[in-house]
Amino acid sequence: MIRANDPNLRTWVPIPENSDFPIQNLPLGIIKRAEVHHVAMRIGDHVLDLAILNKSGLLGVDFVDEVFLSDSINLCISLGKDMMRDLRNRVSRLLDDKHDDLRQDVDLRESCLFHISKVEVCMPIKIGNYTDFYSSREHAFNVGSMFRDPANALPPNWLHIPIGYHGRASSIVLSGTPIHRPKGQSKAPNEELPSFGPSKQLDFELEMAFVTCKSNPLGTTISTDEAEEYIFGMVLFNDWSARDIQSWEYAPLGPFLGKNFASTISAWVVNLDALKPFRVEGPVQDPKPLPYLHFKDTHNYDIELEVLLESPRFNPSRISHSNYKYMYWNMVQQLTHHASNGCNIQVGDLYASGTISGPIKDSFGSMLELTWRGAEPIKMPDGTERKFVNDHDKIYMRGFAKNEQVRIGFGELVTEVLPAK
Fold first, then answer.
1. Other CB atoms closer than 10 Å to residue 6's CB: what's the count?
2. pTM here?
3. Catalytic residue status for 321
4. pLDDT tens, 258-298?
5. Is 296 exposed, middle or buried (0-12, 13-18, 19+ CB in 10 A)?
6. Which of 96, 122, 148 is the last residue of a domain?
7. CA neighbor of 263 nearest in space, from 134, 110, 115, 131
């Protein structure tokens, strides 16, 4: 039993109703105060500065100062899952309403516990490598149906391997960072020659991503039994796409300028341990994968996901409601396949799920699907329509897992689209 997961725990820190961050969550992130970055944990509408708390001795473990005096969580999570589990358990004890060590030390409490409005929340990880998978069967089928014969919508290898591609780590930005509409080459079917200019088909992709906390030497592999020891936690992820640029450049190679201009992640990395109560069976995999992709136990998660669109003319309006449990290929299979050729996994790598779509239209995870390539525009609250994302639209993504006892969430992922430069 992971103590921090105890649904009966209560904290002396005020927690708003339906907060994503109860004491059972305690995700890791980076805050900045007075131009100094520290590793922190989120609880309710407050953040707990672990660098200050560590110096007090109340954690009960001698962490090297540099672990928390950092502008990323990379060094912290590299200590391993056992150490991170112990850290989360120790912090949960200090925040438990049955313990007063931190609550009664007013000076210490005021030096390490801050309302979220009093700090700057920063990019949580230094991303060395970024891979994007294509692991939702519904999404792959929808896209294949649009661009190929629906009878052969899935690529012939799709049911045998977790398809993915290596993306651009440097253009991944934090929630709240606006992005500019990308420019590039595109060619409409009725045009003789391509043209260059701002994308006319800018799209979001509803995804989640996991962060690795362990490395393997180049030339070695990772089994499905070992894979979870490499996975620290998860974030929400919006993998922006310029569909017109993408469709023109897609043959014969894969994603390039239509994808590398921006992706957005949420600020708080939720420990995989916190999501353990929400594990569920995944879809039946037929045909059965090759033996190296066989796995034990359950590795899908019941995480509710939604996308909202806001413009200067109307408030956020929900346009998609999906769930991470729909993923055909799970995280351990994705990571195992990634390293099956000897690829060396590194601490702080980011692995995105690919667009997460469900079985009905309202659960599709992109505008491409929701509007069926623009043929079925979405009605907005002000009477306008959307085929794709307009300038000055804001896209919100939210995700949480919930049962009768506790709710574990990821916070809000939001990005505004600015005109092309």
1. 16
2. 0.97
3. no
4. 999 999 999 999 999 999 999 999 999 999 999 999 999 99
5. exposed
6. 122
7. 131
